[in-house]
Specification:
2 copies of one chain form a homodimer. With about 300 residues, chain A is α/β, with parallel strands linked by helices.
Amino acid sequence: MSLLVVGSVGLDTVYTPFDKMEDALGGSATYISLASSYFTGPIHFVGVVGEDFPNVYIKLLENHNIDLEGLQVIKGGKTFRWAAKYHYDLNVRDTLLTELNVFQSFNPVIPKKFQKAQFVCLGNIDPTLQLRVLAQLENPRFVVCDTMNYWIEGKKKELLELIKKVNVLIINDSEARLLAQEPNLIKSAKMIRELGPEILIIKKGEHGALLFVEDQIFSAPAYPLEMIFDPTGAGDSFAGGFTGYLHRTQDLGPDNMKCAVIYGSAMASFCVEKFSIKGLEDLEYLRVQDRFREFRKLSRFDEKE
Amino acid sequence: MSLLVVGSVGLDTVYTPFDKMEDALGGSATYISLASSYFTGPIHFVGVVGEDFPNVYIKLLENHNIDLEGLQVIKGGKTFRWAAKYHYDLNVRDTLLTELNVFQSFNPVIPKKFQKAQFVCLGNIDPTLQLRVLAQLENPRFVVCDTMNYWIEGKKKELLELIKKVNVLIINDSEARLLAQEPNLIKSAKMIRELGPEILIIKKGEHGALLFVEDQIFSAPAYPLEMIFDPTGAGDSFAGGFTGYLHRTQDLGPDNMKCAVIYGSAMASFCVEKFSIKGLEDLEYLRVQDRFREFRKLSRFDEKE
């Protein structure tokens, strides 16, 4: 059974102090699929683009064993476009443009053969659409869901309905505080898990991530990078690596979930090391495993007997 | 050979949303000494207070095997006072009062028997005074130094002179960025180590700490606390636990240094769990070791073979 990925597909124009790129392949479903493609395949992909979507990007996705049967191409439509400029301090970003285009009326239709999906990763899109995806699935075993402050603020009711139905919610630290209305992150996590998701992951950017599973907390370090080229897609790459690894291993126990968080963090680190999706284009699984081991070195300590 | 601690001693008035306390025992030397006293002793203590300094605090320090021969009591003088109010979000603090009093003209004098100190922890005070301490020591083997943004901004020249002479610099993440004038923390660390200290620790509050030693980076998690009663003294407790553990074990290799960072983090977590110094008053070493093991559980991951 394949991993189902649903989310946005877009053409990104990104400026950083180091480089710029126009109409690059972007979107949450894109980054999730590419990251997860190093762990499992084929990836069942659902999204929407316009007729202007370059064929070279279709090829790129297909070359990563991503099954595009669920990609709607709207005749005469224009693909979702997003433009942003990162400051020298890459934590600061100005959004220059958000053109929804065909994404405005996106209604995710899950092809028959995708409906039996056991593992699902819902990329960051309107929670109403994420709910519509779940309604079309037969009996998913494991649903991972990403969201953002925009939906916490604007579609809280729908989001609360959604997170009751997912197994894992992935958000960042400021979103966790916003959702729980509580400054203490550990208390926020407890409150959010009471709203539904049995497993919660709080991403903290350069500070790593926290996993809350059963009665355990796991603190994952961030990979120490002296140079971040482009933070775009880091969170999606995390979600893709996390879900992809779990799909590969089919083990949902807490110990394996911790490893999945490290693989997610590894994919995020590959993503931000290069511009746009370049860091996820030509990886080898051996390099991913090497990075996993580097994460272990980074956080391992033992007292002498 | 004992551990030498030099820093401030004060009477703190602290308001948090949960409690308040007037004229509590405070100051960097106080927190460092108390935290390190669980690892080694006697602690050789150097500081200054006024005649108003309560005798009960003298007793409290002495009961922790802290040798106060280096504590100057200025006749007719008033002890350093500091008052602050923490907000509901404990990361936000308003300083209500800073009365230097006898601290204004503090000239640290290291008693003869303290001058052979091999391990030294310089608490956060004016770098000019920290330099004066070092000038009185015979041949210290291992000097740990804390500082803050106030000195980075106001006494940069003296601070740069100082950090050439220390083995370990401990600062927080915003101070590291300020000192290096660089937003990327990993690059900042590299730049700061080029200024002198062979070992650098960057504290990140609720996000843990980073240790840079030899060619290794170690990422320590923060202890997950649902309730922080009073953040005052957390950084000093970290420095005390770190230096105390190294003094106890006399092993300055990178692997033991990682354990020392965890013991420092453990002492900081005990500190903030209770108001003022209460969390450091009646600990047992067994509880400290238990917490060390909890840190291991928090960060340990392993892939199945």
